[in-house]
């Protein structure tokens, strides 16, 4: 399984954009990049996923580097409800799709 | 709602007791996963079902851990002769088909005294 590296923690001011980086230099050509987040006392929540092209949904945007060795989750306007641990996962297109979470990035939003 | 439901929400057991944790996935979801999350850590994979077939149990930490999904819907994770190191949050997730997002329950917090 491809390994991911994320900063342990980040802070952002409320209503400002947040860019959460993830390195996955051992990703293979058919691996998907999935982002989840986990609020306190809750299970992880799916945020977004992509393969090669940048992706947008109502929650966030995912920017994928051209060589696919890194990606960035973008929250366009952070709110206090976005304070969570964000996990970047690499999932093989073959096999059992299990998520390998790592330690994630703890995002703190400053009011 | 129609999300993944786990029960009980909290479970306290004495060391050596057996416990059973239940997961009700989203109706129609083919894939079902169990994860274990220790305090302050990310979830770690335990086992995976596709319908009733257990296709991967490589993450189960010992033969005291057993999971089943006999009819391809509800799943049960059983831990026999519990030990203190089994204390964790046990998360269940389901997905519709391969490579679709996983939907998680809020977990069962297991405390072994």
Question: What would your notes on this structure say?
Answer:
The complex is a heterodimer of chains A (111) and B (113). Chain A has 111 residues and is mainly β. Helices cover 0% and strands 45% of the residues of chain A. Chain A contains no helices and nine strands. Chain A has strands at residues 9-13, 18-23, 32-38, 45-50, 55-56, 61-64, 70-75, 84-91, 105-110. The relative contact order of chain A is 0.34. By secondary structure, chain B is mainly beta. Chain B has no helices and eleven strands. In chain B, the strands form two sheets. In chain B, strands 2, 4, 5, 6, 9, 10 and 11 form a seven-stranded mixed sheet that branches. A four-stranded antiparallel sheet of chain B has the order 1-3-8-7, with no helix packed on it. Chain B is globular.
Describe the largest sheet of chain B. 7 strands, mixed
Order of helices and strands of chain B: EEEEEEEEEEE
Number of strands of chain B: 11
- Could you list the spans of chain B in which at least 5 consecutive residues all have pLDDT below 50? none
Structural class of chain B: mainly beta
Radius of gyration of chain B: 13 Å
Greatest interface and its participating residue counts: A-B, 23 and 26 residues
Mean pLDDT of chain A equals 92
Sheet with most strands: strand arrangement of chain A: 1-9-8-3-4
> How much helix, percentage-wise, in residues of chain B?
under 10%
Number of strands of chain A: 9
**What Rg of chain A do the Cα atoms give?**
13 Å
Low-confidence stretches of chain A: none
β-strand percent of chain B reads: over 45%
**What is the straight-line distance between the termini of chain A?**
38 Å
């Amino acid at each position: 399984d491809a390994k991911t590296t994320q900063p342990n923690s980040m802070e952002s001011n409320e209503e400002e954009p947040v860019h959460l980086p993830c390195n996955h230099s051992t990703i293979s050509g058919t691996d998907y990049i999935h982002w989840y987040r986990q609020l306190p006392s809750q299970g992880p929540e799916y945020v977004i996923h992509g393969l090669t092209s940048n992706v947008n949904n109502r929650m966030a945007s995912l920017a994928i580097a051209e060589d696919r060795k890194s990606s960035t989750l973008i929250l366009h306007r952070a709110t206090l409800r976005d304070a969570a641990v964000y996990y970047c996962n690499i999932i093989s297109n073959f096999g059992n799709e299990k998520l390998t979470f790592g330690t994630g990035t703890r995002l703190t939003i400053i009011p | 709602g129609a999300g993944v439901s786990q029960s009980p929400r909290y479970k306290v057991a004495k060391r050596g007791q057996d416990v059973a944790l239940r997961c009700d996935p989203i109706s129609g979801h083919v894939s079902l996963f169990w994860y274990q999350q220790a305090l302050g850590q990310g979830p770690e994979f335990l086992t995976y079902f596709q319908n009733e077939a257990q296709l991967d149990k490589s993450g189960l930490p010992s033969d005291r851990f057993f999971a089943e999904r006999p009819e391809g819907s509800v799943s049960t994770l059983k831990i026999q002769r519990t030990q203190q190191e089994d204390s964790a949050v046990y998360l269940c997730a389901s997905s519709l088909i391969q490579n679709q997002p996983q939907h998680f329950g809020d977990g069962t917090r297991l405390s072994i005294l």
